[in-house]
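Here comes an entry:

___
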Amino acid sequence: MRRRTILLGLGAATGTGAALGTGAFSTASADRQVNVSVADDANSFLSLIPGEENGQFTDDSGDALVIDISGDDGLGVGVDTEYTFDDIVEVTNNSQDPTFVWTTIGSAAFNDDQLTLYTNNPETPLSDANAVELGAGESVSVGLYLDTTGIESDEYAPTLTIEAADDDPNGEDPDEEPAPPTETIPSVQLDSVSSLLDANQEPLTDESIIPIQAEPPAVNSDEDGNDDAVSYPDDVDIPVVAVDGSVVGVTGPFVATDTNFFEFGNEEFLLNLYDQLLGGTGTVLHDESHGQFYTVAPNDGDDFQAFGEYAETNSYVYEVTDNIEADLSGADAVVITSPSNGFTESELTTLSGFVDGGGIVFLHDQSDFNNFDATDNLNEIATELDVDFRFNDDQVLDDQNNTGAPFVPTTANFNTEAFPELFVDRDGLGVELDLSETYEVDVTDVADGDTVDIVFENGTVDTVRIVGIDTPETGDTTERLQEYEGIDDGPALKSEGDDATNYAVNELAGETVTLSFDEGEGLRGNFGRLLGFLELPDGSVYNEQVIEAGEARVYDSGLSQHDAYWDLEQDARASGEGIWEIADQAATDERRDDPVDELFFPEPVAVSGPEEPVASEDGESLVAVDPDANVAAVGGPLIEESFEAGEGGPGIRAYGVFPFLTNVIDYVSDATGPVIVDGGHGQFAADFAVSAEDAAYYLRYLEGQAPGDEAFIDLEGVVDLASDPGPDPVDHIDSRVVSSDGDESDGTSCGGSS
């Protein structure tokens, strides 16, 4: 590296000059004065001559180039004043090779931004971050910027050093091994979150306090219907985390135990934030004194147990408080999740004093779905603490970036420029799972007949949705009667749900079981829960046992065991076991059986065949039948239940799709027996296909078509069409319904009539 040192003798409000030596200086280090050795200019790597625009302030007639900015009165520069002198010096590269040129300052009186050399913009110093590359013989014009704000009248001798090197000082040293790239967390999961607003209850756009935003396709919605959500414009990314000084706002629980910690970096981000604000250690209190739902103790995954233990393994104390005012004095931080009960004035004052004394506050809300949020109570706290963010009474939805449902978005929209340290990858929670492996786990809690909490050998806590089955809902959760054939008594089905829970408790609670997976289902479902089989110590599989006992129905997905499980369900039905004791399919009333006047074809595609009985208004054929081949082609998923009004769709009750499809089946088939719906080719959970699980309303229609003294018409799901679809041989089925497989076809939404 080569250096040219500029020695400036400055006097605030006194006559003085600025002397720049024209030789190639070999050293430069001084606060007030510097002694330098001057080399022969002929041997200089860099030369300094007066610039064209402000060269009149320089004098190179002597042994040194002198900059004199003292003025005619000799009083020098004034105090509390900014000066700029464009093109005051020209720097030339006298070497035979390209070189990078930049400057540094050495001064006890002037800050780095008060005395600089620059090339084009006085606000952009010619520093190592903005080095200029000069080819052999090339020159650059340099200006002088001086700010005497806060400088007292005196004489000063700061030094400016022009440095030169073959390599960019802002790049990597080629002689050194490159530093390994810093790995960052891949993304975070946003389970039922709201958005943030500014202090004026308007969209928050101050990126200096926003570390995480939802991905651009996300929108926010007023899910509780209270018309109190502030909408975000389409061109503004929605903030979901804010950090304003020592107060943090997070729009969801974020680190609840049922979070998929292995795939997402929620816990790593939050612990990085703890480290930044708390310095790597401290006592964190989790408030449970205001009616909070999210506890530290296990709560079916809706808790902070796993994260609390994670924090404690990383040098923090994480414990519950049920008295904020009494306990804050001994804490370094407090976590407040959605408080159903507001804080008293005394508590708010205590909290404000805690922050003023250096305490850290983490505020967590959640979406307004079912009014589970506590937005007003949290905003009272935010107002008391005078932070620049507030919580919005809404829900963030993302149809493109999610874990299977729009209300569980994922995002990697990170503000790494302002908060780089918060996204550094570190050892987190979770277990790397392999679909083909088995794992010994302990059942720690039974939520109901099909959901349990487990702990792995390394202490990782997770939730298992027992795959292939469905048991009736319990508690306040509404059950969809359409899913349970022959059952129309809601309270009775609720009671059966309690029985299923008791059955699961007896079989699973406290047991060490073997967890395994189905390759057709994957590791996790829509809500981030593991989808698994649980093998009991005696070798039996709970998934099978609960079906045999009649406490569960088969879930019509793409499960490889589906067809065998269906046989077990049929046996349980025949013997009236469990929930099937209250089922009577033959008694289901007739419904939706009016003459067909008009049809609705969602997401239609044109079809063709020997006979084409239905066309759209513009003449495109929507149904084709070949009676000789016993085949019909229908250009739309007519019976997909998501189009039902009760499922949030537009509603298809007014259209005769059920009797029409049944008549089509009867037209092309001479057999009697159940309607078989193919689910073995990726149809389950595909928006553009139909599996038996997606056709519950049509199933109830078929039940209503059967006279009480005859065998009912049934609808069955099947994964393997070539083997044994349910208890009846494939030769005896009335019809097979095969919809699109996992490759989505194009289509345009429209309606059609017969």
Remarks:
- Residues 188-423 form one domain.
- The CA atoms of residues 467 and 531 lie 5 Å apart.
- The chain has four domains: 2-165, 188-423, 439-583, 586-753.
